[in-house]
């Protein structure tokens, strides 16, 4: 038996879901899943519509049932689902009801092991209850902190006889690993639904599964602590701010030169207005790729200029952010060194040596520490605290990927309001 590719339509708008479904199913996906967000947004009408448009495909309703198993399975089956998902975290009574209702209404029951503390034990239990399929699943939110499903998949697939599938950020680079770890079906959401070209993305994942090959991708894969910079180099300050729920922006600090982006780890400096000693000493303390963030109290005179920039370039410093003043802008411009500053002025201060390097600083409402991360570009600077850096670097990638997909839909002749069904999704004021 071949390995099935299940496309998970995690949209909130049926029209967008159908657009991707049409191309992905034609490109080689086997099973078609109405994702939980789609069912919550559109109701079981989403399943009915998928059944109508794809009469010969297996339709999966990702109901994530937690209670009232009988009625939820009945509704999904009557809407046209062949497979209905219940959570492994649900009680045995709920799962047993789902299984009985499935038999009655002609649907198979998939037990989703998402967030189950002991998946191997639970897998054996639900197999004994009569489940038809088991899915090992790393939640989208858990993917953001770098978790993957492969070791659990290997263990669960060895522990039970029924087919085991996998979900959790699978892409063209990891689909072969999913097969090697024992998957009988592979569920792919974002790597197809956020792809600029879902048709091509589906073909690549199909090939990765069938030929057991790794097809590298820079998108749809999540980084761990050692690779934060790889994600931050791809995203914009706006992407990162969106991921951070619109926070993280350094107020009043503007790019001095247009078209230059910086992403890097922060080295902080606190200094006295105009005292450029610690900023220049920090260059010698910086690691390659660091961004020096200077708090000079938000006022002049300048604490950074052309010679400091040459020095920073020698040390492979990635950029500078100044809550204070910069000078020599005309001489720095051709050096293409990313510089962000509150003020630009001709006068420098004296090197008196006040202040410290590497201590927490405060700019506006933001506390910034050495080891934090930042992204700066034409929009300004967004800081990412170290303790949440892995998660929000990944969430910023997710924002970027979603925008990539929306942009393609606009370019195909729609407007932003149409693609996002803005009238429907405006925040209602009570
Ligand atoms: O059920 C889901 C989330 O709970 C998703 O459909 C599933 O995780 C697949 O999407 P992705 O490939 O983006 O992880």
UniProtKB/TrEMBL annotation:
Catalysed reaction equations from the record: D-ribulose 5-phosphate + formaldehyde = D-arabino-hex-3-ulose 6-phosphate
Signal sequence residues: none
Gene Ontology molecular function, alphabetical: 3-dehydro-L-gulonate-6-phosphate decarboxylase activity; hexulose-6-phosphate synthase activity; metal ion binding; orotidine-5'-phosphate decarboxylase activity
The protein's Enzyme Commission number: 4.1.2.43
Pfam families (alphabetical): OMPdecase, RraA-like
Pathways per UniProt: One-carbon metabolism; formaldehyde assimilation via RuMP pathway; D-fructose 6-phosphate from D-ribulose 5-phosphate and formaldehyde: step 1/2
The keyword Zinc is assigned to this record: no
Listed cofactors: Mg(2+)
InterPro entries documented for this protein: 3-hexulose-6-phosphate_synth, Aldolase_TIM, Bifunct_HPS/DMK_prd, HPS/KGPDC, OMPdeCOase_dom, RibuloseP-bd_barrel, RraA/RraA-like, RraA/RraA-like_sf
Gene3D superfamilies xref list: Aldolase class I (3.20.20.70), Ribonuclease E inhibitor RraA/RraA-like (3.50.30.40)
Domain Orotidine 5'-phosphate decarboxylase stretches: 4-205
Record key words, sorted: Carbohydrate metabolism, Lyase, Magnesium, Metal-binding
Residue numbers binding Mg(2+): 328
Top class in the EC scheme: lyase
Top-level taxon in the UniProt lineage: Bacteria
Homology family: Belongs to the HPS/KGPDC family. HPS subfamily.
Protein name: 3-hexulose-6-phosphate synthase
Taxonomic source organism: Desulfobacca acetoxidans (strain ATCC 700848 / DSM 11109 / ASRB2)
């Amino acid at each position: 038996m071949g390995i099935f590719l299940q496309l998970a339509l995690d949209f909130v708008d049926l029209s967008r879901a159908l657009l991707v479904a049409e191309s992905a199913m034609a490109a080689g996906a086997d099973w078609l899943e109405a994702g939980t967000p789609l069912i919550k947004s559109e109701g079981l009408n989403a399943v009915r519509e998928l059944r109508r448009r794809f009469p010969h495909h297996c339709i999966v309703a990702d109901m994530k049932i937690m209670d009232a198993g009988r009625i939820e399975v009945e509704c999904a089956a009557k809407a046209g689902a062949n497979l209905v998902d219940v959570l492994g975290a649900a009680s045995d009574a709920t799962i047993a009801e789902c299984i009985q209702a499935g038999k009655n209404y002609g649907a198979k029951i998939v037990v989703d092991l998402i967030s189950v503390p002991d998946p191997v034990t639970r897998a054996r239990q639900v197999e004994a209850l009569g489940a038809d399929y088991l899915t090992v699943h790393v939640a989208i939110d858990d993917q953001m902190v770098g978790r993957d499903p492969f070791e659990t998949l290997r263990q669960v697939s060895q522990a039970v006889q029924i087919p085991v599938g996998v979900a959790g950020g699978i892409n063209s680079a990891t689909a072969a690993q999913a097969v090697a770890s024992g998957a009988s079906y592979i569920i792919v959401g974002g790597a197809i639904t956020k792809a600029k070209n879902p048709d091509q993305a589906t073909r690549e994942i199909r090939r990765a599964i069938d030929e057991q090959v790794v097809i590298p991708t820079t998108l749809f894969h999540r980084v761990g602590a050692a690779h934060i910079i790889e994600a931050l180099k791809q995203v914009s300050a706006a992407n990162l701010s969106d991921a951070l729920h619109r926070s993280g922006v350094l107020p009043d600090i503007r790019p001095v030169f247009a078209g230059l982006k910086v992403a890097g780890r922060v080295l902080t400096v606190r200094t006295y207005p105009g005292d450029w000693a610690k900023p220049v000493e920090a260059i010698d303390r910086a690691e390659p790729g660091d961004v020096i963030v200077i708090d000079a109290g938000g006022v002049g005179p300048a604490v950074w200029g052309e010679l400091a920039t040459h020095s920073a370039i020698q040390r492979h410093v990635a950029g500078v952010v100044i809550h204070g003043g910069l000078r020599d802008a005309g001489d720095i411009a051709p050096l293409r060194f990313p510089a962000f500053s509150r003020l630009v002025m001709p006068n420098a201060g004296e090197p008196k040596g006040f202040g410290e390097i590497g201590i927490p600083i405060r700019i506006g409402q933001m506390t910034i520490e050495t080891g934090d991360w930042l992204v700066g570009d034409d929009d300004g600077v967004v800081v990412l605290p170290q303790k949440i850096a892995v998660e929000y670097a990944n969430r910023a990638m997710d924002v970027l990927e979603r925008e990539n997909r929306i942009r393609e839909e606009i370019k195909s002749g729609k407007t932003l309001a149409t693609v996002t069904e803005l009238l429907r999704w405006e925040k209602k004021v009570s």
